[in-house]
Amino acid sequence: MDQELVTLPLPKGFGIEVDLDSGEVRKQVGPGLYEVDQFEAVATSYLLRSAARKLLARFRWVKESGAEVPAYRVVRCGVGVVDQKKGVEIYRALQHKRAHFGGIVQCGSVWHCPVCARKIAVRRRAELVVATNRMNENGGVCGLLTCTVPHAASDSCALVLERLQRLFDRLNAGKSAKLFRERFGIVGQIRALEFTKGLNGWHPHVHSLLFCERPLLWSEVGDSLWGRWASAARKEYGWELPRLALDVRGGNAAGDYVGKWGLEYEVAGGSLKSARGDSFTPFGLLGQFSEGDKAAGESWVEYATSVSRMGENRIESTRQLVWSRGLKARFDIDDLTDEQIAEAQEEPAVLLGSLTFDQWLKVLGQPFDARVVLLQIASVGNFDDVISFVNNLPEPPEKSTF
User: CA 214, CA 9: separation in Å to the nearest integer?
Assistant: First the structure.
């Protein structure tokens, strides 16, 4: 057995220990035997959100009063309290018994926040499934378009993204785009913007689901799109692109993509791992920063400020998913913003109780992320267990207000 740890008292029978120095949570598997607890989905997402908060806290706005406020909402996500008088509510889902907080700030950022991104991705993936299923049920078909542009390690993320977006806008604008849609019976599309970074620098790319009224030859669709994509690249940047810069696939490609979409946000599945070989997702870079890689952290900041730029009084964010006008209405899908999804309750839940603002500050002031352990206790115990846990926490050396 490892050397004895300085641990935190927990409810009797709960069966875990918390190392107050490292924050490691160990689960009891036998008398005197412990293993690292596997409550990884929440713990990892909280870890990455803390990393994002630390990296973006430097960006601030100065109010007319002279007070400084964080420019990016993720800095306050999960820690800021909406109403200090009401405190922080703790709910437990009726079906899955998972606990979650209420009354705290939710940033709703798919780009910056792994906690909000995971919740939003679940909803967005369901929307994609509904749309493709309903298209198929009505006799239509769906294809998958992929668009890329050249990039080098010396190119900034903002530059490559701007070039990609400019060419994609040209591909979908004007008389030629209208004639293309009429020729192939394309009633709409859903554009998804994704990022990785590897040895050759930033690789933003577009995946677009094409919704067509009737079966067709996808090779003809690809040839038509390729001609306009190559022409636009030549006129805008003088590029002679290789054919693989644009790809169109039919068959099961769209369904396979929809089934896997957003899995990189399922942090329990390995957002700390490389996307492919030496290529990392943005949240993968956050994971590297959490493990001490400062260069990975600065790379993530470059990405974060490229997809969400600071305007005069607001953040101007690129949209991750863009539906053609009227497409959601066609499939009878409610049009909710990312922020609305992040703030919504995932499933019916019961209110266990509320922590006061001072109790919440005590939870936040620990050297480990006590919120994760608190949620575990609330998931299997009662509110008395939660209060017992909070009361047993050491008093922080200083109180901080978020």
Answer: 64
